C-alpha cells in the first residue's frame, strides 16, 4: 500500500503542465452593413463557432494550442458583424502521453485561453459600435468527451495530436 502511494506521488511529481506564453495569433472584425445597421432594431441571431487545434512546438515538451472563436451576428439574412479571434498559447507538458496528453491539450489549455479570446471579441464588438457581447463559458471537458464518444460511435480512433476538436 505504501509502495503504491509512493509510486503515485512520484508520477504526479513528474507530471507538469505550465503555461509559457499566451498570445493573439490572428484577429479580424468585419461589419459590412455599417452604418445602416445602426438604424435597425438590434435583435441579432448570433452564431458562435469554436475550434481548437494543437501541435508540438519543439522537442523540449512545448505545445502550441490555438483556440479559434468565430462569431457571426445577423439581422434577418444580412451579416451585421463577423469577428474571429485565434487565441493561442505555448504550454510545457511533461509526464503525459497518448490519450492523457490529447485530453490535456483539448481541455485544460483551451479553458485557459478562452477568457482571453472572449475579452478580445467583446472589445472588438464594442469598438465596432455594437452592444457588449458576453459569450457564455464553454465546458471543454464535455466537448472532448462528446468528440470521443462520437468517434467511438463511428469506429474511429482517438484524434491524433494536433487534430481539430
The major sheet is characterized as:
4 strands, antiparallel
Biggest sheet: strand arrangement: 1-4-3-2
Q: What is the domain total for the residues?
A: 1
Shape: elongated
**CATH level-1 class:** Alpha Beta
Based on the coordinates given, report the CATH architecture.
Answer: Roll
Low-pLDDT sequence parts? 161-165
Question: For the CA atoms, what is the radius of gyration?
Answer: 20 Å
Termini gap: 39 Å
* Overall residue-averaged pLDDT value: 89
Which structural class should the secondary elements be placed in? alpha+beta
The CATH superfamily turns out to be SecB-like
What is the CATH third-level topology name? Bacterial Protein-export protein SecB
H-E string: HEEEEHH
- Measured as a percent range, the helix fraction is 25-40%
The proportion of strand residues reads 35-45%
Task: Explain how this protein is built.
- The protein has 165 residues and is of the alpha+beta class.
- The protein has 3 helices and 4 strands; from the N terminus they run H-E-E-E-E-H-H.
- Strands 1-4-3-2 form a 4-stranded antiparallel beta sheet.
What is shown here, in short?
By secondary structure, the chain is α+β, with helices and mostly antiparallel strands. It contains 3 helices and 4 strands; from the N terminus they run αββββαα. A 4-stranded antiparallel beta sheet has the order 1-4-3-2.
List keywords for this structure.
disordered C terminus; elongated; 165 residues; four-stranded antiparallel beta sheet; Bacterial Protein-export protein SecB
Amino acid at each position: 500500500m505504501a509502495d503504491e502511494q509512493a509510486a503515485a506521488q512520484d508520477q504526479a511529481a513528474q507530471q507538469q503542465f505550465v503555461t509559457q506564453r499566451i498570445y493573439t495569433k490572428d484577429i479580424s472584425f468585419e461589419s459590412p452593413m455599417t452604418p445602416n445597421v445602426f438604424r435597425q432594431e438590434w435583435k441579432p441571431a448570433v452564431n458562435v463557432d469554436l475550434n481548437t487545434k494543437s501541435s508540438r512546438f519543439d522537442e523540449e515538451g512545448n505545445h502550441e494550442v490555438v483556440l479559434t472563436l468565430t462569431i457571426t451576428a445577423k439581422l434577418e439574412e444580412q451579416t451585421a458583424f463577423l469577428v474571429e479571434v485565434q487565441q493561442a498559447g505555448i504550454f510545457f507538458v511533461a509526464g503525459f502521453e497518448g490519450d492523457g496528453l490529447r485530453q490535456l491539450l483539448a481541455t485544460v489549455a483551451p479553458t485557459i485561453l478562452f477568457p482571453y479570446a472572449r475579452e478580445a471579441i467583446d472589445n472588438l464588438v464594442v469598438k465596432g459600435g455594437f452592444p457588449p457581447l458576453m459569450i457564455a463559458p464553454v465546458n471543454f471537458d464535455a466537448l472532448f468527451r462528446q468528440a470521443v464518444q462520437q468517434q467511438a460511435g463511428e469506429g474511429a480512433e482517438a484524434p491524433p495530436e494536433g487534430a481539430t476538436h
